[in-house]
Write a structure and sequence with these properties.
Layout (H helix, E strand, L loop, with lengths): L1 E5 L3 H13 L3 E5 L2 H10 L4 E4 L2 E2 L2 E2 H10 L5 E6 L4 H9 L4 E4 L4 H17 L5 E3 L2 E4 L4 E4 L2 E3 L3 H11 L8 H9 L10 H16 L4 E6 L3 E6 L1
Helix pairs in contact: 2-3, 6-8
Amino acid sequence: MKILIVEDDPSLRELIQRSLEKERFVVEVAPDFFTAMDKVEVYDYDCILLDVMLPDGNGLDLLEHLKKIRKKENVIIISAKDSLEDKVLGLDLGADDYLPKPFHLAELTARVKSVLRRKHRDGEHSIEQGNVRLLPDSFQVWVAGKQLELSRKEYDILHYFMNRPNRMVNKNLLAESVWGDHIDQVDNFDFIYAQMKNLRKKLKEAGATIEVKAVYGLGYKLVIE
């Protein structure tokens, strides 16, 4: 899962980033309005943590822009400007939650996980496809009732696809989502092929009824056999 933090305070931005990375999120940052605008135009995110008062613009304008370009990222507003008017406007523009500053990092992390559960899993704490069950809170994968050991990136890839069954995903989007922005600028994607090969082998050996299939020239798709 990839998160964008739009926050101009460097110390708070770093604290949030470290906290979310401990939860194994892929985290990108934008210290100002225009950096954030550039990022949302080019990249996709599962959740955006958005400060309202930025040095070069208003975070609510960014939220409105997301709506105009039909981006469907979850957005949690994090702001010291805790007025009812701003809350209502932010929610009307499509924000999923509003957390006033100061806040506890544990509460922020819990809210991020909550909006992601609502988006991808209808509020459920686990994801099930075929006979495979993935537990995001504990980073565990079970196949037919037996735990499957995966490396971190193998798990991240499987998590990404289990949230998007039967959806074609090209290697660029997969790389950005699992490894972070700018990974699309690397010379080749051999690292993806290696991780994908290992994941597919482990799923097959475990007797999984799902498969991440390669579609020549297009990308990958998780299918249930």
